[in-house]
Amino acid sequence: MASKIREPLFSVSGVIRGIVTFDSLSERSVNIRTRREKTGNPNAAVLFYDGTCGFCNGMVRFILDHERSNTLRYATLHGKSGAALIKRHPYLSEIDSVIWVEPGAGRRTEQVFVRSDAALRVASYLGGFWRIGVLGCVIPRLFRDAVYDFVARHRHRLTRRPASCRVLSGQDRSRFLD
Questions:
Q1: Domain count of the chain?
Q2: 61: domain range?
Q3: For residues 178 and 80, is the Cβ–Cβ distance under 8 A?
Q4: In a domain, 178, yes or no
Q5: pLDDT of 124-161, one tens digit each?
Q6: Which residues of 117-149 are buried (b: 16+ CB within 10 A; e: fewer)?
Q7: How many CB atoms lie within 10 A of CB 158?
């Protein structure tokens, strides 16, 4: 009698491929999936960051150096796009965080991720080795956000502004909204 082989409900390879999902009561938690969209696509995700923070600018440079799909768009929280985002989502004005926004398409509404949820989205987006950071989704959000908030409070002391600004290629420059 042949026995059936059961598929595991959870696998490390599934997490590394970025197809693990996590759900919670929060509107900011959804499936983690890597999207491969063309540069300049208005439906591509946008990463909002503090443009006056050396740590945040370093994070953006790191993403630009390590991303594989070159689809993520960037905007500062203090620019026009950041103001428009806060107007659409007033609760964001109280949050000191990097923000990952996935625009709505069709029936899907715009999805906003803050703090550690945004960091998990970045890890998933980077792909490759960096996608292992998605394993952080098994840690309760309360603890992830506590660590995130600690780093956020001290981020200005962690790095200094670079002596010179990075010159972006035309393709990279087009992905910055303002």
A1: 1
A2: 38-162
A3: yes
A4: no
A5: 999 888 888 888 889 999 999 999 999 988 887 777 65
A6: bbbbbbbbbbbeebbeebebbeeebeebbeebe
A7: 11
